[in-house]
Design goal:
This protein is of the alpha/beta class. It is about 35% helix and about 10% strand. The chain has twelve helices and 15 strands. The strands form four sheets. The chain has a seven-stranded mixed β-sheet with strand order 2-1-3-4-5-14-13, sandwiched between helices. The longest helix is centred in the middle third of the chain and has 25 residues.
């Protein structure tokens, strides 16, 4: 669609001193991004700032920008970043004796503080940049400094694109919403609905689903983390809520019910500082006092790959067996490997019926296994569908072998290409640029690409072919 950038452009008279240059070149791009929030010893999501910078730099070159006209600044926090932006505006914009600085775009990803349990979703997840308490005096000062510097830059003719997190008090020329908590939760829930065919499930044999919502109530930034956890659950519940209300989905732990709402996120929230926390939580939820019995579980929304890894370890320790392939028998490990090697596409078959309760007795408490056909007792230890997000390289083997059904990621390459296209359009004052996935939100042109869902069937097309991971990363 045509992006409404006219309000951000300048007239020929305003930019007369640089019009000739702007018409011949794409101008300059300065990127201000946070340092990566991950260390080399941690499980790392594919979506990190340094990878986006690399992809965006490559995309800018493909769009005709010169390498020498692309510069990146990385900072540890908002205070450092605000000073970097202020220094740049003073040294490279305002020093030109009042002449306009058309043909230049600043790309700013605010260096927002991130709670421990939130960062495992990756670096691009939308946060909230607010300063409302006396304890946040330093943040408020940094925010004020950032807004003042960016407004001075815009007054001098510089364009500004903001990524991921909006800056209160500042209106950019364009905003790029890479991913947010609600989006992440909604995608996983929808993938679970599709895989388990909840629309064909009856309340007589409901699917048993657990939502694992990581939350550290003692975090140094509880308000930010609470907001993220709440929004993530809101995304999940916007999809699964209708199935719980109709009785075709139930919670084995009874933490959620037909009367639950999106405000009940705390019911499924738990502290997830380390993998053992996740293992302990899934064990507690599926615990049974009957020796040798198992609590049936059909699906687990793990929210991110860090939690999914702990869920897998917990299920394994409890004795659950099988893989996601058992829920879709036409897909075997051989099919997956053949697809990844490029020999054939994975064919999907009908998902088997839900775990059946015995035909006699009181339903969920019956264990005699009687009834017609080969009904699976409610104490089945069949492996559930496990979802996640982040596309951790360390978790990809779990996708291949079916222990984790799906993961997800923001379209890094697509966002990089879109950012480059916006920079080019702004620097050239091209008010009729045709850019995809754009809408106007609160008066600001906003780009928001859909998230990418990754399963064994499309792993090659979504991760390997685009160059996000290698065959070796997938343990192949």
């Amino acid at each position: 669609m045509t992006v409404p950038l006219a309000a951000c452009s300048h007239s020929a008279a305003d930019g007369a001193s640089t019009a000739a240059t702007s018409s011949m070149t794409n101008g300059q791009v300065e990127m201000f991004v946070p340092n990566d929030s991950f260390t080399i010893s941690q499980n790392v999501p594919i979506n990190t700032w340094n990878r986006l910078v690399e992809a965006t730099s490559d995309a800018l070159v493909e769009h005709g920008f010169d390498d020498d006209d692309i510069t990146t600044h990385t900072d540890a926090d908002l205070d450092e970043q605000s000073r970097s932006i202020e220094d740049y505006v003073r040294d490279h914009v305002e020093r030109d004796d009042g002449r306009r600085a058309d043909g230049r775009t600043l790309v700013v990803a605010p260096a927002v503080r991130t709670a421990e349990s939130t960062k495992y979703y990756g670096d691009y997840a939308t946060q909230t940049l607010e300063s409302t308490t006396d304890d946040d005096a330093k943040t408020k000062e940094a925010l004020d400094r950032t807004v003042a510097a960016l407004n001075r830059a815009k007054s001098a003719g510089v364009h500004v694109i903001v990524l991921s997190t909006r800056i209160p008090g500042f209106t950019p020329d364009a905003f790029v919403s890479i991913c947010d908590a609600e989006q992440i939760g909604r995608m996983q829930a929808q993938q679970l609905v599709n895989k388990l065919e909840l629309d064909k499930t009856s309340r007589d044999n409901p699917r048993r689903i657990e939502i694992m919502l990581p939350f550290d109530g003692e975090a140094s930034h509880p308000d930010d983390e609470q907001r993220f956890a709440r929004d993530a659950f809101k995304g999940v519940w916007s999809v699964l809520g209708t199935y719980f209300r109709s009785g075709v989905a139930v919670s084995p732990s009874l933490k959620l019910s037909a009367s639950s709402t999106e405000d009940d996120w705390r019911a499924v929230a738990f502290q997830a500082r380390k993998t053992d926390d996740v293992v302990a939580e899934i064990k507690a939820r599926l615990h049974t006092d009957t020796k040798g019995a198992f609590t049936p579980i059909d699906g687990v929304v793990s929210m991110n790959d860090f939690v999914a890894d702990g869920v897998i370890k917990g299920l394994t320790a409890m004795g659950y067996v099988g893989t996601a392939a058992d829920v879709n028998p036409s897909i075997t490990i051989g099919d997956v490997l053949g697809n990844i090697a490029g020999r054939r596409d994975v064919q999907r078959g009908k998902v088997p019926e839900p775990t059946q309760a015995p035909q006699t007795g009181d339903g969920d408490d019956g264990n005699d296994g009687s009834g017609d056909g080969e009904a699976v007792p409610v104490t089945s230890n069949r492996w559930p569908i496990v979802t996640g997000y982040g596309s951790y390289v360390s978790n990809i083997p779990n996708i291949v072998d079916g222990k984790q059904w799906m993961t997800g990621l923001a379209d890094r390459n697509g966002n990089a290409s879109g950012i480059a296209a916006i920079c080019k359009a702004l620097n050239r004052d091209d008010t009729k640029a045709s850019l995809d996935h754009f809408n106007t939100v609160d008066g600001v042109p906003t780009m928001a690409l859909p998230l990418i869902a990754v399963s064994a069937g499309n792993l090659k097309a979504t991760l390997i072919d685009p160059g996000y991971i290698s065959l070796a990363d997938a343990d192949l």
